[in-house]
Amino acid sequence: MVVLSPCFAAAGLCVLSAVETVTATPVARQSGFSLLLSNDDGWAEANIRALYEEATTAGYEVLLSAPAENQSGTGSTSVEPTPLTEPGEFDSIPAGSPAEGHNTTDDHIWYVNAHPVDAVQYGVQNLSSTYLGGAPSLILTGPNVGSNLGIVTQFSGTVGAASEGVKLGIPAIAFSGSGGSERSYTELAAGDYSFIYAQASLRLADALVNSGASPLLPSGTALNVNYPDAGAGTDCASADDFKFVLSRVYSVLGLPVDVTTCGSSSLPTESSVVGTDGCYASVSVFNADSKLDAGKSAQQAVLDSLSGILTCLPS
Q1: What Å distances lie between residue 224 and 87, 89, 283, 288, CA to CA?
Q2: Which of 45, 67, 190 is nearest to 118 (CA)?
Q3: Which of 162, 164, 166, 290 could in theory staple to 117 by disulfide, Cβ–Cβ 3.0 to 4.6 A?
Q4: What is the reported pLDDT for 253?
């Protein structure tokens, strides 16, 4: 598969360099299921483009709407989109381009020169009816470059973007990976960590899609998923190596306040899951408004939906 570098209708610019990418094995899915992708690292960052390619190859209807620049740490803040006064991320957008625009070779890839929250709003409210035939079935944000654990979730644009999706009535999952660094998608190479994170994210999304749950996630909640390092020389050399564990964002010092699973009524924290040797990924259910842990009933619903993919930490 070949990924073309950015082309822009507004500027009449098309750069025809390309990179070879890995082709994923298609995943099972519900017919007509659509995804909106966003992030806070920017529309031209490697991780989100890898996820776009993998999801498209798998047969999902996919729309990408993400910030024109790295907007990490903007949380749930919003600003008015404005025309670009300087070139966009990795020189992917010419200075003087409009506040919103798309790749001319693929009009399902959009930038919004504002914050992650604004990119999600624009994708849902202005783009999805045209490019997805209606509201997206699920929003996936990330995979973020770097973990989003504990208190950091309050400031994460990736988590903020997922939260915004829920506020707009769309179920959402925020993904973050501790490995790698911010880079252009033109640097993607077959089998590297960006594709591993993308494929693992689709494993989880597909499990949720095919769970039969309706709604996909409990009202007012989203999932926060964190991965350890991935790629050659790590415990996570492929997407199939990841073992997903139901977790919580904040510690409650062992108090039995959570759903009962794995022999305990106190879920492990995200940090403890990701820090366990053996390629464990954390899956936390959080309230989209407060970004605090959701209650037992919401945890139970997710546990039931993802029972086929969730596991326990080693004793």
Answers
A1: 32, 26, 6, 10
A2: 67
A3: 164
A4: 74
Question: Could you tell me the two tokens for 264?
Answer: 């305990």
Q: Token pair of 121, please?
A: 């709003």
Q: How many CB atoms lie within 10 A of CB 254?
A: 9
The pTM of this model reads 0.91
Instruction: Give the pLDDT of residue 307.
Output: 97
What is the domain-level CATH number for residue 120? 3.40.1210.10
Residue 125 DSSP label: I
Contact yes or no for 276/313 (Cβ under 8 A): yes
Confirm if 66 and 187 have CB atoms less than 8 A apart. no
Asked if the model's pLDDT at residue 20 lies above 70, the reply is no
- Does the residue 99 lie in any domain? yes
Q: Is residue 135 classed as helix, strand or coil in its secondary structure?
A: coil
Host domain of residue 193: 6-311
Classify 54 in phi/psi space as left (phi over 0), alpha (psi -120 to 50) or beta: alpha
What would the two tokens of residue 20 be? 């070879």
How many structural domains compose the chain?
1
Q: Is residue 299 part of a domain?
A: yes
Round to whole Å and give the CA distance between 44 and 29: 27
Q: How far apart are CA 112 and CA 98, in angstroms?
A: 9
Pairing of strands 172-177, 34-38: unpaired
Residues in CB range of 54: below 8 A, 6 or more apart: 24, 195, 198, 199, 202
Under the banding of pLDDT at 50, 70 and 90, the label for residue 219 is very high
Amino acid at 19: V
> Tokens in use for 28?
């099972």
The structure tokens listed for 80 are 């008015």
**1 part of a folded domain:** no
C-alpha to C-alpha distance for 173 and 217, rounded to whole angstroms: 10
* Residue 195 DSSP SS3: helix
pLDDT tens track for 107-132? 999 999 999 999 999 999 999 999 99
